[in-house]
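Researcher: We're teaching a course module on how sequence relates to structure. For the next exercise, students receive a sequence and then see the predicted structure as C-alpha cells, so they can try to spot secondary structure elements on their own. Here is the exercise chain.
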Amino acid sequence: MNHLLAFEIDNYQFGLHVPLVERVVPACEVTPVPDGPAAVLGLINIQGTITPVLNTRKKLGLPERLVSPSDYFIIASSEKYHMALHVDSVKGLLEYSDDQLIPIDDVLTQETPVSVVRIVDGLVLVYDTNKSLSDTERKHLAVALERVRKLNDQGS
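Model: And here is the predicted structure for the students to work with:
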C-alpha cells in the first residue's frame, strides 16, 4: 500500500506521497524574492532553513489568491531541493494500491506536476514535487536567491 497526505486547493483534492513530506505548518508571512520566478511566491524561514514557497495555484492553472492565515504550507522535498507548497487545507492520510494509479501521460503534458489515483470517493490528483519547477525556473530562483544573499551580506 502507498500513502498520500491529502490536501485541497480550490476544492480540488490532491495528494503528496508521504515520504516526500517533512512537515505541515500553518501559513505565515512570505517574503517576496525580487526578480524571482513567477512560480515562487517567496521565502519563509522554517527553523533556520530558508525555504521557497511555490505558487501551487499558478503551477496547476488555478485562480491565484493571496496567502490566508487559514492556509497551510506543506514542507516537502524533491530530488533536488526542499520547498513549501501553499495549500488551502490538509485533510489527512489516504491509502492506495498500485492498481489504483491511473496513467494520464496522454492527457497531461510532461510539465504538469500531477498524476491521478482512483479512490472510493472519486479521483485524487497526486502532486509530483520533481515537476514543481522547471530547470529554467530553478536557475532563475538560484540567481534571485544569490542576489538576495549578497544584499544581506552587504547590509551586515
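Model: If you want an answer key for the exercise: The mean pLDDT is 84. The first strand starts at residue 2 and ends at 9.
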